[in-house]
Amino acid sequence: MKHVKPVSWARWSLITVWLLTALVSVLDPDRIGHSLLRQASWLPSASHDGLIELGVVADLGIGVWMWLKPGRPAYLAAACMTCLMTLLATVIAPTLWWHPLGPLSKNLPILALLSILIAQEP
Predict the structure, then answer these.
(1) Helix or strand or coil: residue 1?
(2) How many whole angstroms separate alpha carbon 35 and alpha carbon 78?
(3) What is the pTM of this model?
(4) Is the model more confident about 2 or about 114?
(5) Residue 93: count of CB within 10 angstroms of its CB
(6) Residue 1 has pLDDT above 60, yes or no
(7) Distance (Å, rounded) from C-alpha 59 to C-alpha 15?
(8) Distance between CA 74 and CA 18 in Å, rounded?
(9) Rounded Cα–Cα distance for residues 118 and 68 (Å)
(10) Phi and psi for 5 in degrees, rounded to 5?
């Protein structure tokens, strides 16, 4: 069996996270994204669908970018998007930091993996 390098595992695991996040956001029968956005009373409800669609496009775009053209620009974009989404979710629902499934705390190892991938690039 061919040995797979840890950097390759890191890259493919992150691609999977980004692409599955896009897919789940589209297929979400429980409308979790809408539920989260409703907690931000300062956001007009008419903007919720558009914001979720923007998130889907961003997640899909970064996942495909990291898949087809891996490199420092893709990893930096992913790190910036992770930080932005974490910050926004923290403002909207800070209790997500204490959620048992870690919707925000999981972003810390994601950023660690991205920093490793960034460091591996020339």
Answers:
(1) coil
(2) 24
(3) 0.87
(4) 114
(5) 18
(6) no
(7) 9
(8) 12
(9) 16
(10) -70, 145
Residues ≥6 apart with Cβ < 8 Å to 87: none
Helix (H) or strand (E) holding 8: helix 6-27
Residue type at 27?
L
Query: CA-CA distance, 114 to 15, in Å (whole number)?
Result: 11
State the virtual CA torsion across 96, 104, 85, 35 in degrees, nearest 10. -30
The token pair that represents 37 in the structure block: 């956005």
DSSP 35-47: HHHHT-TTS-GGG
Tell me the pLDDT band of 2, cut-offs 50, 70 and 90. Answer: low
State whether residue 93 is helix, strand or coil: coil
